[in-house]
Automatic annotation (TrEMBL):
The lineage of its organism: Bacteria, Pseudomonadati, Pseudomonadota, Alphaproteobacteria, Rhodobacterales. GO terms for cellular component: cytosol. It comes from Roseovarius nubinhibens (strain ATCC BAA-591 / DSM 15170 / ISM). The keyword rRNA processing does not apply. InterPro entries: Flavodoxin_fold, Flavoprotein-like_sf, NAD(P)H_dehydrogenase_qn. GO terms for molecular function: NAD(P)H dehydrogenase (quinone) activity. This is NAD(P)H dehydrogenase, quinone family protein. Keywords: Oxidoreductase. Belongs to the NAD(P)H dehydrogenase (quinone) family. Residues 2-154 form the Flavodoxin-like fold domain. Coiled coil: none annotated. The keyword Oxidoreductase applies.
């Protein structure tokens, strides 16, 4: 899905950078770090965060595992989206988002039927859209769900990729 989206965006003249989480080497555990005693970012996390700051539009393609996001993805967010670079905790009230002026598209695969996802897995959508991307300033955050991912019907993957291409074309 990311390759299809990237190809369509490049064809529209956009510069694209792709990161594959499975290739990234970092400790996903924030450990005993805190706002005042932050755990240093590994070089790949620094590079990823620099890419996030550079981006105008961020696309996340991931599976839903056990009703949530994969642990390493959550670890990426925990480690990279920190005060000073992605939000500012100084001042009164809610933290100020520092990654404004960007949008995001989430492409989520799962085995849950769409109606079941909408009924029972809405907290995942809320977490990704509001508590993660929205909190640091991404707006709008669009969410597309692809169901029955483990055993798609014949031709289904091609239909999904066509849909991803259309989504990318609209974003361009």
């Amino acid at each position: 899905m990311t390759e299809t989206y990237a190809a369509r965006a490049r064809a529209a003249g956009h510069e694209v950078r792709i990161w594959h989480l499975h290739d990234m080497a970092f400790d996903p555990d924030y450990g005993f770090g805190g706002y005042k005693n932050q755990k240093p970012l590994e070089p790949q996390l620094e590079d990823f965060l620099a890419t996030l700051e550079w981006s105008e539009h961020f696309v996340l393609a991931c599976p839903m595992w056990w009703g949530g996001m994969p642990a390493k993805l959550k670890g990426l967010f925990d480690r990279c989206l920190l005060p000073g670079r992605s939000f500012d905790t100084r001042g009164s009230g809610l933290p100020k988002p520092l990654l404004t002026g960007r949008s995001a598209q989430v492409l989520l695969t799962s085995d849950s039927p769409w109606w079941y996802f909408r009924l029972l897995h809405r907290p995942l959508m809320w977490q990704v859209k509001r508590q993660i991307f929205g909190f640091v300033g991404f707006k709008p955050v669009r969410f597309t769900h692809f169901t029955q991912a483990s055993h798609p019907a014949p031709g289904q993957v091609d239909k999904w990729l066509d849909r991803v291409g259309r989504i990318a074309a609209r974003a361009a």
